[in-house]
Design a protein that fits this description.
Low-confidence stretches: 14-26
Mean pLDDT: 88
Largest sheet: 8 strands, mixed
Oligomer: single chain
Number of strands: 8
Radius of gyration: 15 Å
CATH topology: Rossmann fold
Number of domains: 1
Length: 191
């Protein structure tokens, strides 16, 4: 994905926004747009191929017993299943009930998870997840600038009905995520 033009990336992002915003209420990001952003951004991670191998395993983490978390995760999984590839790689997607940061980090390493999507209902667990995933080779993603600032690597949210992209560069370095400069220029950077 090296050498992407800003125009090409923004054009693809604009198309995703037009498809996704029809379902959006206020500034709630539709699942289809979340899936599109997750797969597009993951494809630019220079280390994704080495991390993933032949298939990108994407895990969506849900808060156990929380129906909103489970509903939004199911919608995101369905949207991700409609996408063919993450960059040049096929992908698989699954959900996991959150049972603690250390256990999740160990499972991600064992399952060779390429991308971990953290649902907003796990906001209270972000610092524990960040600490448990320090040194892990994994891309973490959340639909929240605040969660990104607190330790998730990549984030996005709708601001005035437009998607905004965020990256936590310090956490990206700790989790072996490397984005090209032309993509970083499109993001708000937390250090």
């Amino acid at each position: 994905m090296v050498g992407v033009s800003r125009r090409a990336f923004c054009g693809g992002l604009a198309a995703a926004v037009l498809v996704g915003t029809r379902a959006a209420a206020a500034d709630e990001m539709p699942s289809a747009l979340q899936a599109e952003l997750l797969t597009r951004l993951a494809a630019y991670d220079r280390n994704m191929k080495a991390r993933a191998g032949e298939r990108v395993n994407i895990v969506v983490v849900v808060k156990p017993g929380d129906s909103d978390s489970q509903r939004s995760a199911a919608q995101l999984v369905a949207a991700l299943e409609r996408i063919d590839r993450v960059g040049a790689l096929p992908h698989s997607v699954s959900t996991s009930a959150y049972a603690g940061a250390a256990g999740l980090a160990a499972a991600c390493k064992a399952w060779r998870v390429g991308a971990l999507f953290v649902t907003p209902r796990l906001a209270d667990e972000v610092e524990a997840l960040r600490a448990a995933l320090d040194g892990a080779d994994i891309l973490t993603v959340a639909p929240s600038a605040e969660l990104t600032r607190r330790g998730i690597v990549l984030g996005f949210e709708l601001v005035s009905s437009r998607p905004k992209l965020f990256i936590n560069l310090a956490q990206a370095a700790r989790q072996n995520v490397s984005m090209p400069a032309e993509i970083l220029k499109l993001m708000t950077v937390f250090r």
